[in-house]
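Re: weekly structure request thread

Next one in the queue (111 aa):
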Amino acid sequence: MVNAKKEEIKKTVKKAVKKAKVETKKAAEEVKKTVRETFEVSGENLIKKVKELIKEGNVRKVIIKGKDGKELVQFPLTLGVAGIVLAPVLAAVGAIAALVKECSITVEKEG
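Done, posted below.
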């Protein structure tokens, strides 16, 4: 009886380890697929560039930094984001554009 329990526990542990390896491999592949790009833009072109990046459809996250490299705003984008959801984000980007002359946009894209 004790040996049967030990064998059952061994099988359960092996299954759990195998599942963990598969999930780890999937996560590692997902990380490899993420690409970062940075664009230097003027404040007046900021909204235009952000809209352009959003239209590409493969952008996961947008980070806007000031000329000094300090992060001003960061927002995630998910698949199928509707225009009404983006309105507040674009309003915030517009406010930033009014305040800065030069900035950089870093985007995380699906590779």
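Residues 35-110 form a domain with the Methyltransferase, Cobalt-precorrin-4 Transmethylase; Domain 2 fold (CATH 3.30.950.10). The radius of gyration is 22 Å.
Next request, please.
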